[in-house]
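It is worth pausing here to work through a concrete case rather than discussing structure prediction in the abstract. The textbook approach is simple: state the sequence, then state the predicted structure, then interpret. We follow exactly that order.
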Amino acid sequence: MGSRAGATVHAVLFDVDDTLVDTKGAFRHALTTVAAEYLAADASLADVATFWRADRHGYYRAHTRGEMDHREQRMRRANDLHAEFGGALMSDAAYDAWDVVFEQGFQDGWRAFDDAHACLDSLDEAGIPYGALSNARFDYQSLKLATVGLERVPMLVGVDTLGFGKPDPRVFELAAERLGSVPSGTAYIGDELDIDAIAATRAGLSGYWLDRWGGTDARSDQGADGGKSEATQDGLTVPRVATLRKFSASIGAH
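Step two, the predicted structure:
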């Protein structure tokens, strides 16, 4: 199948969060329960969700670089959230209770995007194998995919597989290998321009940016030029699509 860049796509790798699964919505669901129990009464849920997603100190990305474990990054983010919105600073024991509330709300909010199955159906019909690569823990993402009805997408590499995650090229290379492909024959799609599409391209894959929100996602300053069909960063240009249906069509899977 022909990709937009003219390469032949033999296999597809997906990011999980905010690509196949509406993690942004799940975080909003979790933060609704947290705000009601822990934050000031006048805290705006929209502001709370934006603040959480922004992760202003970059704790989650530090975790994906292997600099701290998952618990430490989430506890730091939780205390940062409390400091901003009138919650008490939490010790280890208090955080553990908080995390039970947060995690239950988060998992209750997991949903697959409406376009995920249509995209996978197109790939199945075209005979293109696929799998998932994520900057979250392997078993956790496998559970997430199964919970939302996407168990047909095999998890291939998580942040714990090598001890670090994207944008390191080795995680893309390993995922392609486990899928039975090579980087040059593999397309990768994810919702973050820098660590997904650009990083995959640097690793030799055909990287696609899934821009569901028109470049206005709070995690990064990617510009609000949502109508464009390409995006450029650090001298690299990648295809930009708004839905997974457009992605499957762009690589020739109809």
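Step three, interpretation. The longest helix spans residues 92-108. The chain is about 45% helix and 10% strand.
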